[in-house]
Amino acid sequence: ILALAGSLASAKVLPRHVALKGLNGDSITLNDLCEGKVTVIVFFKGCCVSSKKALSDLTKLHSEIDSPGLSVIAISTDTTRNLSQAKTYASPSKVPFPVLFDTETKLAKAMNPRGTHPYTIITDRQGAVAFEKEGYRAGEWKRYKTRIQELLKGN
Predict the structure, then answer these.
(1) Which residues of 86-103 are buried (b: 16+ CB within 10 A; e: fewer)?
(2) Which residues have C-beta within 8 Å of that of residue 19, sequence separation ≥ 6?
(3) 42 has which bridge partners?
(4) For a surface tag, which of 1, 34, 35, 145 has the fewest beta carbons within 10 Å of its beta carbon?
(5) Mapped to the 3 state alphabet, what secondary structure does 11-78 carry?
(6) Along the 155 residues of the chain, how does pLDDT read in single tens digits?
(7) DSSP symbol at 128
């Protein structure tokens, strides 16, 4: 029982009150995008080849799971100096879900302390992290899809 209590106490929860800038410069809280939804967040860098592949595959995933109970969000951790590259790659014509910018990496450091890219998390409807993955390999989105579908069904 003590081991179980320890694992529950250390569970990661997405800090939904955090506000980040969107592509148009507006401040958006995570709660605005994911309240009561299963949420997929990928932290990426515009110069990272694996990040670009992850975003491309998440675009496929987003189109395959068309559910009002799902929110997919891409968060760039590029510095303001490198932001233009991330904005170009994550433009609305290429990425059909919200793209936010964590230029000070406050959220990224809280959720991804090792700073790997890409870094994907999937949360349940309450914001508890149900899945996290450092890096990305082609085809992993199929594994993500299975986990998302389980969470959407309430498992």
Answers:
(1) beebbeeeebebbbbbbb
(2) 27, 28, 29
(3) 74, 120
(4) 1
(5) CCECCCCCEEEECCCCEEEHHHHHCCCEEEEEEECCCCHHHHHHHHHHHHHHHHCCCCCEEEEEEECC
(6) 334 333 343 468 888 888 999 888 899 999 999 999 999 999 998 888 898 889 889 988 988 998 999 999 999 998 877 777 777 767 666 788 999 999 888 899 889 888 889 999 999 999 999 999 999 988 888 889 999 999 999 85
(7) B
Task: Tell me the pTM.
Answer: 0.86
Q: How many residues does the chain have?
A: 155
User: What DSSP string runs through 93-121?
Assistant: TT--S-EEE-TT-HHHHHH-TT--SSEEE
CA gap 54, 106 in Å, rounded: 22
Asked if residues 12 and 24 have their Cβ atoms less than 8 Å apart, the reply is: no
3 state SS of 84 = helix
